[in-house]
Amino acid sequence: MRITWECFIAVFCLSLLVGASTISANNDVASTVKITEKTSGTTENNQLLDLGILDSEAFLFKRETDLQNTTQKAREMLQKFNRSLRSFVTDSGFDYVSFEPNMDSLRNLLSDIEFLVETELEFHQFESRLNFSRIMFQSMVDSTDKLKRYGMYELPGHELIYEMIALNVKVLSMFDSHGSFDLNNKEAEEKLPSLFFSLYVWESDFQKLNEVHPGVRMVFENKCAQVKRILQLLWKKLQKR
Q1: Which of 8, 53, 165, 166 could cross-link 94 (Cys pair, CB 3.0–4.6 Å)?
Q2: Which of 76, 144, 73, 131 is nearest to 104 (CA)?
Q3: Could you give the C-alpha distances from 110 to 105, 106, 131, 167, in angstroms and in order?
Q4: Upper half-sphere CA count for residue 26 (Cβ side, 13 Å)
Q5: What does the pLDDT look like over 61-86, one tens digit per residue?
């Protein structure tokens, strides 16, 4: 009976030790699992965060690159437009006959450029160029409409109005795409005296005409005043260099 009791006590104590070891082992495993899960979750979150930063940087880079490409595209389109306008103005005058068939395509090109700048770019970067391009184009369109009619020389003063309108376009073409006059442009500077001379001769000839219709006189005087104002402005700028 004693041996049996001692054996029972030994077995009981052994079971307690085994149970404690199992619980400890289970706790260690649970702790390990929790730590692993926590570490794994943190690593995953960090990876997602890194991916988010990379995606954001990639988006910003792409947007900046797209903006640069679009800006360059707008500049090139404007240069093309202004070159096209100036190609119709030569030393002999304004070739409105060649300009007229191209008016619609040029108008569409300018409208496309304006829309591109207004919707995707910084407008102030292109404002002066767009404004002058629109002024130059519209002046050529208006001049074409009048030159087609006054070019027939049917009444006194018509021929001189024709010359004055063409001179007005020629003077405008001396400005750059921003609407500014390059004071270092020797070619433009050399043209000023001959332009002043043409203005003086045609104004003098017109004043000698008789029986000029009041409307015709008004058109000539307005065009003459426009050209004179621009030429005088350019001359003053050259003198102040």
Answers
A1: 166
A2: 144
A3: 9, 6, 11, 24
A4: 6
A5: 444 557 678 888 888 889 899 999 99
